[in-house]
Design a protein that fits this description.
The complex is a heterodimer of chains A (about 130) and B (about 475). Chain A contains four helices and nine strands; from the N terminus they run E-E-E-H-E-E-E-E-E-H-H-E-H. In chain A, a hairpin with a 2-residue loop joins strand 2 and strand 3. Chain A has about 130 residues and is α+β, with helices and mostly antiparallel strands. Chain B is an alpha/beta fold and about 475 residues long. Chain B contains 18 helices and twelve strands. In chain B, the strands form three sheets. Chain B has a seven-stranded mixed β-sheet, sandwiched between helices. In chain B, strands 10-12-11 form a three-stranded antiparallel β-sheet, covered by helices on one side. The two termini of chain B are about 30 Å apart. Classes of the chains: A alpha+beta (about 130), B alpha/beta (about 475).
């Protein structure tokens, strides 16, 4: 059974969001990394300082099996990408809610968080 | 030497340095006057030195490690690995065709041009399109050509569109093509029966959408029954409908993409019309279009005036030339022979038998590995090994590797992406009932063995020069230069 962490917000497309003030820290869930299997590359077509729209694909996560898009759960400006993943993409597999975070977005409309699921709702969604 | 022995590279086999002694001095202009100095190698390349028999043995050994349709059953889904009849090779190899110089004028190539014009006509009839070009040199090249024409069409009308829709079950080449032509791709979802979700499609259609790219039957081997509705809503939005011909072998001679409402199609001659696959090409991916796209076809156009065939470079709205010559003519001629050999009735019969073979193989396997969608399929089908309670840790990749040890080519695995632990099989019409039964019995035997000795099954293959490859390390730490060439 894959892990679901309390206190985070979740999307139907298996991203998680941790709110830190006005910044959304975003990653993929334990379930998503299990499905993708060993991550070999994380590609950021959108750089720090650029804007993203909620629902748009902003990161490409590649495994031996597939390449998957990460969809922005909120709109805003990218403040940081996880540079550690360039050398060690396996952190997305090993620690998806911690060291394996993927992107940080300064939210332009925090109310977009309201439609995301909490841990219990995501648990129900994944079953 | 055993067949599974590892064969070193020629550089490792080399005994000595130099190896350039036999290369004659080139005459004419000095290289330095032709090529800017920054593009010239500072010193001559270190070529390997081996004797002629050593070189011949090296390549003969490598050739024996090739797996082809001529060495065994090759059920690679969505690839249509059918047998390539020898008569197609021998006729395409006739000196009048094979020795025609690329720079020979149209007046010296009348016979070849006639056959190319004829096959364009045959393909137009089979696909239901108004005109076909044999210019593109591969399936992906054909896609590129087709979507370039889509762009030219919209631009010509002053219609600003920047999105191409692609189903989530599509071949990876579709979004790649759209990106190459400068479009953004947006995914259309499949519904629970494995076909395009019409409501999702409607929600994504607007005046920004240039085209929807579709295979029919799709990659699950299912016929898109709502194709007429799909075509209608796509056209109502001002977009075009693109047919990826990868799965044409299911319907050739039976149903025509043109009648379904497609505006542009590419056809993989190496699939449906039995020419050799890949190997560095050139291949052939002819493209057919409806009337409104004819002005954009690539040049040179093969045209007939009176009794004479000409190459026309003067087509103002054309997307231009895709390659300098029709260098893929040998492949086009093989397909021509195949089509003349089978005729209209034969091509229809081949499609029917391709579907029959796929249904029979699915029937033999479905009690052992469940199909993703248990509906009557077309020329290919997708099974899934996602049920861990049934297969334990043994998975699609494990089954594929074990099949290699048993002398079969593996089916397509982990595709389409919407199916977990997918095994996608396409037997084609050229396989006998006995071959299908032997293959099915082998799959069942592997499953039984894996249940008895999972550890052993998980580490296959055992009979190949290299065993189970560490794909994860290879992708994470790729070594792109052979150590002996550094």
């Amino acid at each position: 059974m894959s892990k679901i962490q309390d206190g985070l917000k979740y999307t139907e497309t298996h991203e998680w969001v941790r709110v830190e003030g006005s910044v959304a820290v975003i990653g993929i869930t334990d379930h998503a990394q299990e499905e993708l299997t060993d991550i070999v590359h994380v590609d950021y077509p959108i750089g720090v300082g650029e804007s993203v729209e909620k629902g748009s694909d902003c990161v490409v996560i590649e495994s031996c099996k597939a390449a998957a898009d990460l969809y922005a759960p909120v709109s805003g400006k990218v403040t940081e990408t996880n540079e550690g993943l360039a050398d060690n993409p396996a952190e997305v597999n090993d620690d998806p809610y911690g060291k394996g975070w993927i992107i940080k977005i300064e939210m332009s409309d925090p109310s977009q968080l309201d439609v995301l699921m909490d841990a219990d709702a995501y648990r129900a969604h994944s079953e | 030497m055993p067949l599974d022995a590892f064969e070193p590279s020629l550089f490792e086999l080399s005994h000595g340095e130099g190896g350039r002694e036999w290369i004659p001095e080139r005459g004419g202009a000095d290289l330095a006057s032709l090529i800017p100095s920054e593009h010239l190698a500072p010193e001559p390349a270190a070529l390997p030195v081996v004797s002629e028999p050593e070189a011949v043995r090296h390549f003969t050994k490598l050739s024996r490690r090739n797996f082809s349709i001529e060495s065994g059953f090759y059920p690679l889904g969505s690839c249509t690995m059918k047998y390539n009849p020898k008569i197609c090779d021998s006729l395409a190899g006739l000196p009048g065709f094979a020795r025609l110089h690329p720079e020979a004028g149209a007046d010296m190539a009348q016979g070849t041009l006639r056959l190319m014009d004829d096959i364009s006509g045959f393909l137009a009839q089979i696909s239901g399109m108004d005109k076909v070009t044999t210019n593109p040199c591969a399936g992906a090249h054909g896609e590129f050509c087709g979507i370039l024409m889509v762009r030219a069409y919209h631009e010509d009308r002053g219609d600003d569109r920047d999105v191409v829709l692609v189903p989530d079950s599509a071949h990876g080449t579709n979004p790649a093509t759209a990106a190459m032509v400068g479009y953004k791709t947006v995914e259309v979802k499949s519904n629970s029966s494995g076909c395009v979700d019409l409501d999702d499609l409607k929600s994504k259609l607007n005046d920004k959408v240039a085209a929807l790219m579709l295979t029919n039957p799709n990659t699950l081997g299912l016929f898109e029954k709502e194709i007429l509705d799909i075509a209608r809503v796509v056209h109502e939005a001002g977009a075009l409908l693109y047919y990826d011909g990868a799965n044409l072998n299911a319907i050739a001679g039976v149903a025509r993409p043109g009648d379904m409402g497609f505006d542009v199609v590419h056809i993989n001659l190496h699939k449906t019309f039995s020419t050799p696959h890949g190997g560095g090409g050139p291949g052939a991916g002819p493209v057919g279009v409806k009337q409104r796209l004819i002005p954009y076809l690539p040049t040179p156009l093969i045209e007939k005036s009176g009794e004479e065939y000409t190459l026309n470079y003067d087509s103002p709205k054309s997307i231009g030339q895709l390659s300098t010559f029709y260098g893929n003519v040998g492949i086009v001629l093989r397909a021509y022979v195949y089509m003349r050999m089978h005729g209209k009735e034969g091509i229809r019969r081949n499609s029917e038998h391709a579907v029959l073979n796929a249904r029979y193989l699915k029937h033999l396997l479905k009690d052992h590995i469940p199909p993703e969608i248990d509906a009557p399929g077309m020329h290919e089908f997708v099974l899934t090994m996602k049920d861990k309670s049934r297969f334990g840790e043994f998975n699609a990749m494990g089954l594929a590797k074990n099949l290699i040890d048993r002398g079969f080519h593996a089916p397509t695995v982990y595709f389409p992406l919407i199916v977990k632990e997918a095994l996608m099989m396409e037997p084609t019409e050229t396989e006998s009932k006995r071959t299908l039964e032997e293959f099915a019995a082998t799959v069942v035997d592997i499953l039984n063995e894996a249940a008895r000795d999972p550890e052993k099954a998980m580490h296959a293959p055992y009979t190949t020069p290299v065993k189970r490859l560490d794909e994860v390390s290879a992708a994470r730490n790729p070594v792109l230069v052979h150590p002996c060439c550094e």
